[in-house]
Amino acid sequence: ELQDPSGEHIYRVRGAPWQLPNSEDKKTLTNNNMKNNNSLNKNMDTTHISEQLTILYTNADCFFNKLQELKHLISTLSVKPNLIAITEVKYKNNNTFGISELNLEGYTICCNDLDNNPRGVLIYVADSLESQIVNLEFKNNEHVFIQLKCTGGKQLLLGNIYRSPNSDLEEDEKLCNMIKSACKYVVDELIIVGDFNFRDIN
Q1: H or E stretch at 3
Q2: Strands 53-59 and 45-50: what pairing?
Q3: What distances in angstroms separate CA 188 from CA 65, 80, 88, 183, one per listed residue?
Q4: 95-126: per-residue pLDDT in tens?
Q5: Which of 13, 113, 123, 202 has the most CB atoms at less than 10 Å from its CB?
Q6: What is the mean pLDDT of residues 151-160?
Q7: Closest-CA residue to 110 (of 126, 92, 91, 88)
Q8: CB within 8 Å of 61: residues ≥ 6 apart
Q9: Dihedral angle computed from the Cα positions of residues 60, 62, 63 and 64, in that order, rounded to the nearest 10 degrees
Q10: Dihedrals φ, ψ of 165, to 5°?
Q11: What is the CA radius of gyration of the chain?
């Protein structure tokens, strides 16, 4: 357990969304180990960047057959996530579903080109948020970036990235350049989530 002395409402929870801290536990960092390794929950991160914005992230490793599980998870939450970021939407190189089949009530889908990328990434954006996709013009990395208007008129750039474990040094350099480009693009705030498959980094 880590108390945040800065007063900023920034903390992360690893584990199922129903383990979110209550109002008395805000500004607390808690790590929860999930016992069910086959569950969508096992890689779910929940990040609060403010009291008004909540982000869920997971690597789904073929999301289509886990969509109903995500819907159930959301139905258990008293506070619904504003943003849901997912990597490895497809099962390897097999895409047997259309993007319309991933529709989630109350959310708009922002994704990369699922037909021309092996795994696919997406972000669900709550319909209550004003957002737009940002094109950083890097075609060799699986990513999607969106810009959001937040409370007080601030602009938030949110990126969701998937790096293949088979990436070579050239592809890694392109990834680093893309992140640098995102940092230059940022007006106010930047958040990057995803699966980078760097085994030596926890």
Answers
A1: strand 2-3
A2: antiparallel
A3: 37, 24, 29, 10
A4: 677 888 899 999 999 998 887 778 889 999 99
A5: 123
A6: 88
A7: 126
A8: 88, 91
A9: -160
A10: -65, -15
A11: 17
Distance of alpha carbon 77 from alpha carbon 57, whole angstroms: 15
Residue 193 has pLDDT above 90, yes or no: yes
Task: Give the residue carrying structure tokens 């949110």.
Answer: 158
Q: Residue 73 has which token pair?
A: 């998870």
Strand locations in 32-188 (E): 45-50, 53-59, 83-87, 107-111, 121-126, 131-134, 142-149, 155-162
- Residue 40's φ and ψ, nearest 5 degrees, are -60, -25
> What is the pTM assigned to this prediction?
0.74
- Reported in sequence order, the residue ranges of 43-116 that DSSP labels E, i.e. its strands, are 45-50, 53-59, 83-87, 107-111
CB atoms within 10 A of CB 179: 18
68, two tokens: 């109903």
Q: How are beta strands 53-59 and 83-87 bridged, if at all?
A: parallel
Predicted pLDDT of residue 140:
67
